[in-house]
Specification:
156 residues; alpha+beta; six-stranded mixed beta sheet; 4 helices
Length: 156
């Protein structure tokens, strides 16, 4: 991946693979506190980026200007959520927000300085429900690694 524009386009496409129970962290290899992370839910995609409390020289004005929602007492990171299913333009907007965080707020020079980690959590039986052993055995056990090679950066 040679440019931020190419990375942004690839990230927007990868968001379609961040489905229910999939988690992704994209971080600077030299300083893993400079990251964006994603959590797939059944009806939304949640994104987070740390602020100056984690990355002391983070330019929070960039996060604010690019559309991230500021931290709260309950949520210490900057956030952005996307209702699913989403339009291509909405994925592109979220990808743009993430590139602004990585490149402009955290000062990461190029996508080649990034690495990702992605996994899928195990499916859980809903609380307060009782299922047969067969149905429990049929639950998705998750995956320690989800490959997102189209991102064009290395896996952690």
């Amino acid at each position: 991946m040679s440019t931020w524009d190419e990375f942004e386009s690839a990230l927007a496409r990868v968001f379609r693979d961040v489905t229910d129970r999939v988690f992704v962290i994209i971080a600077a290899e030299a300083d893993p506190t400079r990251y964006v992370q994603f959590a797939g839910q059944p009806s939304r995609l949640d994104a987070e980026a740390p602020g100056a409390d984690v990355v002391s020289d983070a330019d929070e004005s960039v996060l604010r200007a690019s559309g991230w929602v500021g931290p709260t007492t309950e949520q210490p990171n900057w956030t952005s959520s996307l209702a699913l299913p989403a339009l291509s333009g909405e994925y592109a907007d979220l990808a743009s927000r993430c590139v602004a965080a990585l490149r402009d707020a955290y000062g990461i020079g190029a996508p080649e300085e990034l690495a990702y980690r992605a996994w899928r959590e195990a499916e859980q039986m809903p609380a307060g429900v009782t299922w047969s052993e067969e149905r429990i055995a049929a639950l998705d056990s998750g995956a320690d690694t989800v490959v997102l090679s189209s991102l064009g950066i290395s896996a952690d």
